Amino acid sequence: METILPKFDSVFSIDCVIFGFDEGELKILLIERNVEPFKDWWALPGYIVEQDESLDNAAERILYELTGLKGIYMDQFYTFGDVNRHPQGRVITVGYYAMIRLSGNKDLKPVPITNYAKRAVWTPLGELRKLAFDHDKIFGRAFDKIRNKISYQPIAFELLPEKFTLTQLQHLYEVILNKKLDKRNFRKKMLNYGILKELDEKQKGVSYRAAKLYKFDKRKYARLFQKELSFGK
Amino acid sequence: METILPKFDSVFSIDCVIFGFDEGELKILLIERNVEPFKDWWALPGYIVEQDESLDNAAERILYELTGLKGIYMDQFYTFGDVNRHPQGRVITVGYYAMIRLSGNKDLKPVPITNYAKRAVWTPLGELRKLAFDHDKIFGRAFDKIRNKISYQPIAFELLPEKFTLTQLQHLYEVILNKKLDKRNFRKKMLNYGILKELDEKQKGVSYRAAKLYKFDKRKYARLFQKELSFGK
DNA sequence: AATATAGTGTGTATTTTTTACACTAAGTAA
DNA sequence: TTACTTAGTGTAAAAAATACACACTATATT
Fold first, then answer.
1. C-alpha torsion A138→A140→A144→A150, nearest 10
2. Does A179 have pLDDT greater than 90?
3. What pLDDT band is residue B98 in, cutting at 50, 70 and 90?
4. A87: three-class secondary structure by DSSP
């Protein structure tokens, strides 16, 4: 492709904020960098977009190369373009996020495919240290995004195991929103959405009364959120 | 700044979707391009980001250069990065939007500062033709954004003259949401937000009963939207 | 077998918000 | 004075959000 565009020393990259939920904790996927700059620092999985791939494809590839996770559907949330955000040149980075099901999925032990990362680790939010580049800021914005989104769209299911109890769902909401919710009101609201399928199954292996298990009903969810964006008559 | 980053023939650009509202019509600001590619086509005001400026600053500069509009605060809404979106090379573009007050503001007659654009024109949405590049898609996404946002945040005031009637406000909502609203319910809702200041003034120059004028109260608005993001107890 | 424990599961009254719906009042123009 | 055009208003019903407390059930322990 011939170009008459100016040639800057500029590149664009993708950084991924992947949320998981396990053992009652909200986690994100971090890599330990194996190259300069910020060698040995923890960072979001991120890398440079190739010339011949779209941003969405790049996001998927990059996440795979750095963490081994495949086929994760991510959404864009913001693009970061401060002049000095990268010490080696002008790099703008497009932030992508996803929420994925961790528990019970042993495929999700992350293993870097390239040696750009030493390892990839699910890190509880409570244990976050200072990250490389401006990744703290990027993470913060992603977290704002899901906190915001969850308060008007029931998207939290993506983080839970396929079968979950209402208490687990409530805990997840409490962790993301950072506040206690009322059990009765929470259940009423969730069940009223009509997007949960009650199963004939109960929790197992708990040393107390086992709770009913539920499944998320994707079809009803899709129907529900077509008619959204109200403003009444 | 020394760099060891790969040097791609890639650049990033900004495209601006600037909404205005005038004579009961919603408009966006378009330029007629004066350079290839897409010479003589209508397009969103957009150009390439310099190496030493942040995206936000670039957005402001670019809008100014192409339309003469200065000091417009814009927000990012999406980044477009399909491989072939620009015929001359790999360009990703960050979309910014703003809603601005048109009526009664004669400074807003847009005049390009560079000769990259022949002219800049406020174009009613009804008169939109096929735009250059993927600008139709970019515009569509910006419009979705404001439609979405307006249904949970009263941001429409930015488009109205400083003093406006409730009927004008309602018309604006109707245009953006593309549906008729009930006058009584609309007024009740707006007044209940408590972010409108009723003035001791009436509309002038109309050949029928003049309506009361209102002003938007920025301070109360700010207060209101701090306590948002509910989910009750 | 009895008891302790820990989490499950449920109902109701109150308040707030949303919705539906139609007429009179005021000002201008003829 | 009348005709016209838009401004301005209230209420009832339904739906959604909130506040609030206790009995039940399964298991583990003694």
1. 90
2. yes
3. very high
4. coil
Give the three-state DSSP class for A79: strand
CA B144/CA B134 separation, integer angstroms: 16
Minimal Cα–Cα distance from B174 to chain A, Å? 10
Tokens 């004028």 correspond to: B213
Q: What share of chain B has pLDDT > 70, as a percent? A: 91
Phi, psi of A229 (to 5 degrees): 60, 70
- pLDDT of residue A145 exceeding 80, the answer is yes
B153 touches chain A (CB under 8 A): no
CA distance B14 to B46: 5
The pTM of the whole model exceeds 0.90? yes
CB atoms inside a 10 Å sphere around CB A217: 16
Q: Which nucleotides of C are covered by protein (CB under 7 A)?
A: 5-12, 17-22, 25-29
Q: Do B55 and A89 touch (CB under 8 A)?
A: no
State the nucleotide closest to A207 in CA–C1' terms: D27
- Asked if residue A100 lies in contact with residue A20, where contact means CB atoms within 8 angstroms, the answer is yes
Across chain A, mean pLDDT equals: 90
The rounded distance, in Å, linking the Cα atoms of B144 and B123 is 18
Residue listed under structure tokens 């399928």? A197
Q: Name the residue with tokens 């307006």.
A: B150
Note the pLDDT of residue B53: 95
For residue B136, give the 3-state DSSP assignment: helix
Q: Give B106's pLDDT tier (boundaries 50, 70, 90).
A: low
* C-beta atoms of A182 and B233 within 8 A: yes
